[in-house]
Design a protein that fits this description.
The protein has 149 residues and is an all-alpha fold. The protein has one domain: Serine Threonine Protein Phosphatase 5, Tetratricopeptide repeat. It has 10 helices and no strands. The longest helix is centred in the first third of the chain and has 16 residues. The protein is globular. Keywords: Repeat. InterPro entries: ARM-like (IPR011989), ARM-type_fold (IPR016024).
Length: 149
């Protein structure tokens, strides 16, 4: 995913595929972290901040690794993950699925410990979820994930 592909779906599906592999085989999480997987996904989210599919895939990746490893969740927070999620949610605020995934990533980060939940809240995670809930009142998945933050 480090190459520059003209079709952003490559990045969206790549993030989701890596995340799903981690769930099916948790020992791969350490390998992905050591290989710079978090940094690669952050780079994609930054470069394609207005592309809902890339944001959705990247948020999915962050949620999956954060909910399987407190160390990964801390690394994401330390690297500015909450701010990156919020920025992506702002750029894709009209897309319900990106908002759902953003809320899911925020709730995944917050779910690992009271310390992490406090940090997500202090960094604006609750406000971002509130905006998503208000903009997508009729979307059940946004409502479900937004209420988890």
């Amino acid at each position: 995913m480090r190459k520059n592909y003209p079709v952003t779906q490559v990045y969206e599906f790549g993030c989701v595929a890596v995340a799903n592999c981690l769930v099916q085989h948790p020992p791969n999480l350490e390998r992905v972290m050591q290989a710079g997987g978090i940094e690669v996904v952050f780079s994609l989210l930054t470069k394609h901040s207005g592309v809902p599919g890339v944001q959705e895939g990247g948020f999915h990746f962050m949620n999956m690794i954060a909910t399987h490893s407190e160390a990964a969740a801390k690394q994401i927070l330390k690297a500015g993950g909450v701010e990156l999620i919020i920025k992506g949610m702002k750029k894709t605020e009209s897309n319900a699925m990106a908002q759902r995934s953003g809320c899911h990533a925020l709730s995944g980060l917050a779910s690992m410990s009271v310390e992490l939940a406090t940090r997500v809240g202090k960094q604006g995670g609750l406000e971002a979820a509130t905006v998503a809930l208000q903009k997508h009142k009729d979307h059940a998945l946004v409502q479900e994930m937004g209420c988890r933050v």
